[in-house]
Amino acid sequence: MRSEDEMVAYALETHTALLPYLPELLADLQELGGNAEAISSVLDDLNLTKSATVADLGCGKGAVAVAVAEALNFKVVGIDLFEPFIESCRELAERHGVSDLCHFINGDILKLAGKIGPCDVAVFAALGDVLGPLDQTVSVIRQYVRPGGFMVISDGFIKDGGSSDFPGFEQYAERAEMITRLSACGDTLVREIIDEDSIDGGEDEMIAVRARAIAARQPEIAADVLNYAAMQSAEYEYIRENFVSAIWVLNRSY
Ligand SMILES: C[S@@+](CC[C@H](N)C(=O)[O-])C[C@H]1O[C@@H](n2cnc3c(N)ncnc32)[C@H](O)[C@@H]1O
């Protein structure tokens, strides 16, 4: 598994010069990968008690956390490494009238594992392999969940015959291998939803439009923002051709 420092560096490495511009580049995207409505509906189907608690790990700008609080009235704690996103989370919760149900923490989900909760559910949406391969990822996520609780993981697998030869996707495999990794800690896969529409909202074009506006305004950062937009576009293209998005629900066994 990556060390905490390596993991933080990994999350931020491509963005160092861009960090101040990330909120603007991503301004049009409330969801940063996870499908908030689908995840909220999955949690609804778990028939949890009214007092259920949820941890949203790597909550981004709060789309999933707020959707869950609003639709299901559950208490949600969202954790993210990137401080400006935490501010966006709080604003979003405020706008949706669920500030009393949501608590957002600026922190590292690896460092905080075992220190928060245990909750009834932990959501891990669109973080990819920041915690390493899926078996190692699950071993961290389950520390946020009580025995008998659930882990909702929005991730995916390589299409049959597809390639994992793209930066950030080297650890991915086809479905059978990913399912094996999911169950490596002895937990039970209770549901799988193939999410065909996970990234088909023109997200890469929205980022490109923002990048062009920043580049026109601030020529000194133009190359970096345009390169970032091009990398995002290449990644979305890779995903469309080689990747199947899935939401998996695991039941923590012990
Ligand atoms: C692609 S976004 C997904 C956000 C959110 N789950 C969603 O679906 O909208 C990934 C998020 O994970 C956060 N992240 C990455 N590594 C993290 C870590 N070790 N601890 C906390 N947050 C992390 C990033 O800052 C980013 O906001």
Description:
The protein has 254 residues and is α/β, with parallel strands linked by helices. It has a single domain (4-19, 30-198, 243-249), classed as Vaccinia Virus protein VP39 (Rossmann fold). The protein has helices at 4-12, 22-25, 36-45, 63-72, 83-95, 109-112, 134-141, 175-182, 203-217, 219-242; strands spanning 53-57, 75-80, 102-106, 119-125, 145-158, 188-194, 243-251. The chain has a seven-stranded mixed beta sheet with strand order 3-2-1-4-5-7-6. The longest helix has 24 residues, at 219-242. It starts with a helix and ends with a strand. Bound molecules: S-adenosylmethionine. The site of S-adenosylmethionine has 23 residues, from helix 1, helix 4, strand 2 and helix 6. S-adenosylmethionine is lined by residues 7, 11, 31-34, 58-60, 63-64, 79-82, 85, 108-110, 125-127, 130.
